[in-house]
Amino acid sequence: MYNFNAADAAEKCAAWIRNWFEENGKGCNAVIGISGGKDSSVAAALCCKALGKDRVIGVMMPNGEQHDIDYSIDLCKHLDIKNYTVNIKNAFDGVMGEIEKQIDVTAQTRTNLAPRIRMSVLYAVSQSNNGRVINTCNLSEDWVGYSTRYGDAAGDVSPISFFTVAEVKAIGRELGLPDKFVEKPPIDGLCGKTDEDNLGFKYETLDRYIREGIEPDPATKEKIDTMHERNLFKLKYMPCYNYFEENK
């Protein structure tokens, strides 16, 4: 029977983060994009537990006005971590303006450009702060490909990629994060819809399907399965042609 021990998971994940930094960036800082939602909040709290707050740097990256940026500011205050705010609006508008002069830009292109610019910002901040970039994807989102390749799906190390949304929330509560960070509905930042509105099903439904094999209604199951299969490429290394392997 499925049983998740959040206290054990938090301790072991923090130890794993600590060991990873010892091997891959001894003395380096953890640099993490802060949205104020559960994933970045829990990932940041785990890094604080693993490395100490003085080695965790938060980066807020609004695209112009961000109505819920107070969550991000409050999270940085709660964890007492160093933080920067880099507004990406000028970069976004500049790049999009140049592309639109030559291409009919699709809605998906516009949606994915912002997270890819944000990842460039994170790496710029990281490189100037002796850092390593923390990926904040979780298993539920990865399962159905709800991420932007080379955007929020990128990073140097990913502490919560094998935890479902429900498990991430449980870890957050175990770490003492206030409910406002753990329970904040994820919003895409574009049309004001929640992630669950965009997906068309609840994370609770998805989590139970992943962890316990409890199937949702046939239409939802088909949608989840289709999204999972269609987006598996996002979880794999880039395919590389190896002439020498082929001609051994």
Total DSSP helices:
12
Largest pleated sheet: 4 strands, parallel
Radius of gyration: 19 Å
Question: Could you tell me the strand content as a percent range?
Answer: 5-15%
Sequence of secondary-structure elements: HEHEHEHHEHHHHHHH
Taking all residues together, what is the mean pLDDT? Answer: 94
The total strand number stands at 4
Spatial gap, N to C terminus: 48 Å
Structural class by helix and strand composition = alpha/beta
Please state how the strands of the largest beta sheet are arranged side by side.
3-2-1-4
User: What global shape is seen?
Assistant: globular
Q: Estimate the helix proportion, in percent.
A: 40-55%
What are the low-pLDDT stretches, counting only 5+ consecutive residues below 50? none
In short:
This protein has 248 residues and is of the alpha/beta class. 52% of the residues lie in helices and 7% in strands.
Would you write up a description of this structure?
A 4-stranded parallel beta sheet has the order 3-2-1-4, with helices on both faces. The protein is about 50% helix and about 5% strand. The termini are far apart. The chain is built from 12 helices and 4 strands. It has helices at about 5-25, 40-50, 70-80, 90-100, 105-125, 140-145, 165-175, 180, 195-200, 205-210, 220-230, 245, and strands spanning about 30-35, 55-60, 80-85, 130-135. With about 250 residues, the chain is α/β, with parallel strands linked by helices. The longest helix is centred in the middle third of the chain and has 21 residues, at about 105-125. Strand 2 (about 55-60), helix 3 and strand 3 form a beta-alpha-beta unit. The relative contact order is 0.14. It is globular. Helix 2 crosses helix 7 (about 165-175).
